[in-house]
Amino acid sequence: TNEKAYQLGKFARVALGTSQIDYNGRWCMSSAASASTRAFGVDRGLPFPLADVEHADVVVLVGSNLAETMPPAARHLDRCRDAGGRVVVIDPRHTPTADRADLVLQPVPGGDLALALGVLHLLVAGGHVDEEYVATRTTGWESVRDAVAAWWPERVERVSGVAVAELRALVDLLVGAERAMVLTARGAEQHAQGSDTVLAWIDVALALGMPGRPSSGYGCLTGQGNGQGGREHGQKADQLPGYRMIDDPAARAHVARVWGVDADSLPGKGRSAYELLDALGTPAGPRAMLVHGSNIVVSAPRASHVQQRLESLDLLVVCDLVMSETAALADVVLPVTQWSEETGTMTNLEGRVVLREQARPAPEGVRSDLDVIAGLAERLGSPIDFSTDPEEVFAELGRASSGGKADYAGITYGRIREEGGVFWPCPDPAHPGTPRLFADSFATPDGRARFHAVDHRGPAEPVDDDYPLHLTTGRVLAQYQSGAQTRRIAALPDDGAFVEVHPLLAARLGVADGMAVTVTTRRGALTAPVRVVTTIRSDTVFVPFHWLGVNRLVNDALDPASRMPEFKVCAARLEAAS
Ligand SMILES: Nc1nc2c(c(=O)[nH]1)N[C@H]1C(S)=C(S)[C@@H](COP(=O)(O)OP(=O)(O)OC[C@H]3O[C@@H](n4cnc5c(=O)[nH]c(N)nc54)[C@H](O)[C@@H]3O)O[C@H]1N2
Ligand SMILES: Nc1nc2c(c(=O)[nH]1)N[C@H]1C(S)=C(S)[C@@H](COP(=O)(O)OP(=O)(O)OC[C@H]3O[C@@H](n4cnc5c(=O)[nH]c(N)nc54)[C@H](O)[C@@H]3O)O[C@H]1N2
Ligand SMILES: [Mo]
Fold first, then answer.
1. Sign of dihedral through CA atoms 437, 439, 445, 451?
2. Main-chain phi, psi angles of 138, to 5 degrees
3. Which tens digits make up the pLDDT trace of 115-145?
4. Which among 26, 69, 492 is the best mutation to test ligand 1's pocket, defined by most ligand atoms within 8 Å of the CB?
5. Which of 94, 144, 260, 361 falls between 20 and 30 A from 516, CA-CA?
6. What residues are paired with 334 via a beta bridge?
7. Under a CB-based contact definition with an 8 Å cutoff, are residues 402 and 427 in contact?
8. Which pairing describes strands 180-184 and 58-62: parallel, antiparallel, or unpaired?
């Protein structure tokens, strides 16, 4: 909940007095967040309500398998198509989402940035750039125009694996649309060039004059239930509540006043999630760690290394509601209530703050996260008290966020109940909230959106003779994340990890559906049954990450701007298991 995210940020900076805090959204939407902030001056997953999708003429999904990862949202795509709109899916696998599309492009993993440059090239060549919009609402176009001159379609085909005719088909759809949307998800974002990839797709939306127009523009399909609110209120290594930056003196002064502490006592920026884990137990790194609600042993890249770092700590405390693989390593486990047993707000992918009310009593004697934070703060001799009442914490969060970009000052539990959610920014009680951003101006100092000239670098670990295949990872419908919660639910199908392989590749290896194969990368190996499917590229294999194992293979290369690990591509080889 927002209340926990806020209290955790305050707890780290005030009760523990440490700069070393980060959150799992670093591995989720951080590349999109970084790109949106640079291009638009603010990061709100969607700058419009999700239902606006229904009125778009063209919706381009770059690396999203919405039909399996956000099933309730898929109806908006269907309604869009029922009204005559077209859906484009860009994914190396032909997913159930692609089944609902009019055009499907299957690039090689990591090919999305080159594709966007190819689209921009054809927009320029065909004279399809919205010059008036570019002149009045943006800056930086000239450098993009010059840079994309070198990305002619045949070159894009060589790099991305998408045929020239398919690239042209995408451009034809886009230039024929009055209302076009580009939506990215983890497939495009979880790369060492993820933030540049998102910037390039934002360039496409800007060149077409879309952001700020009705049912048009760019958005990020935020992942977790509270992936949006979780990144707004100070859990991030470099941020304070309301999206304030921790190295901004005015932001520090404001938040310190709300917290009742001296601004000089607040630490500065900490390490990003993977860098923090990598530093554990080293001479310069922390020797004790508190984990709230993350199953790192399964979800972190280069997971064997991360497990070693955790084991080198003097003290590991895990606060969770199940005995996850990470909790099993801990010196102390603090069990907490789960979602239905507590009240709190969450901010959905549209920037709408919603209230999740307690639905059932907590088991006797089990504390909530807010109780645990408050209890620890007291025992640590915190100079200030931590409330355990969610509504009280939310009111304080509102004051701390006041004047920031994600301004919640005008939102109350009462209003959320009455209005069915309130969109931020909502700076005062009389303000109606802001369902749509950017109609008149962007959140940059001059009100204009920024183009960014970026270039394709390719995966940090290219394929070679020893590791000739692309390994990519992601999700299946019936499991959630590290599986800590869903693998315990008997009603959900759980066949364990598997390796998706194209029939051509299977034939070359001499393996049939169900046989065991071993996937090997420079970091480790995993043996699992093969699933032979025609829906994947023949140069790519896919393994879901819900089971312990595949992240031992995944590369820990980080995006230089967002510090996002490269979950979506590394070089691998495949053999029939003996
Ligand atoms: N069932 C289920 N739903 C979930 C979750 C879950 O674990 N299970 N997790 C939630 C969370 S936290 C998140 S972040 C979202 C994630 O939602 P999505 O982003 O939709 O999920 P992923 O499966 O990680 O990746 C989407 C697609 O990216 C494709 N892909 C892989 N590499 C590339 C590439 O280089 N380029 C492109 N264009 N595509 C690529 C994969 O084939 C995959 O189909 O889902 C949320 N919903
Ligand atoms: N290879 C690969 N790795 C990935 C990804 C990928 O696509 N490929 N995706 C990345 C993404 S997008 C994400 S979001 C991360 C997710 O990574 P994690 O956040 O580590 O995964 P979860 O399984 O959601 O772990 C959440 C834990 O919190 C516990 N929990 C649930 N509710 C509460 C609560 O209210 N309080 C407390 N204290 N605990 C609670 C759950 O029981 C569970 O153990 O994984 C990342 N890792
Ligand atoms: Mo996520």
1. positive
2. -140, 170
3. 999 999 999 999 999 999 999 999 999 999 9
4. 69
5. 94
6. 319
7. yes
8. parallel
Q: Which ligand lies nearest to the CA atom of residue 567 in the structure?
A: 2
Helix axes 2-10, 369-379, angle to 10 degrees: 10
- Ligand number nearest CA of 483 is 2
pLDDT of residue 24: 87
- What digits encode the pLDDT tens for the residues 244-257? 999 999 999 999 99
Q: How would residue 494 be classed by pLDDT, with cut points 50, 70 and 90?
A: very high
Which residue in 359, 368, 413, 363 sits closest to 386, CA to CA?
368
The SS3 assignment for 119 reads helix
Which protein residue has the closest C-alpha to ligand 2 atom 13? 28
Q: What is the DSSP letter of 12?
A: I
**Taking ligand 3, which is a single-atom ion, which protein residues have CB atoms under 5 Å away?**
28, 223
State how far the alpha carbon of 165 is from the alpha carbons of 154, 161, 395, in Å: 10, 12, 55
Residue 248: which H helix or E strand, with range? none
Quote the Cα angle for 79-82-88, to 5°: 80
Q: 0.90 cut: is pTM over it?
A: yes
Tokens read off for 460:
């940090």
Does 188 sit in the ligand 1 pocket, CB within 6 Å? yes
CA distances from 252 to 261, 343, 446, 502 (A): 10, 29, 24, 54
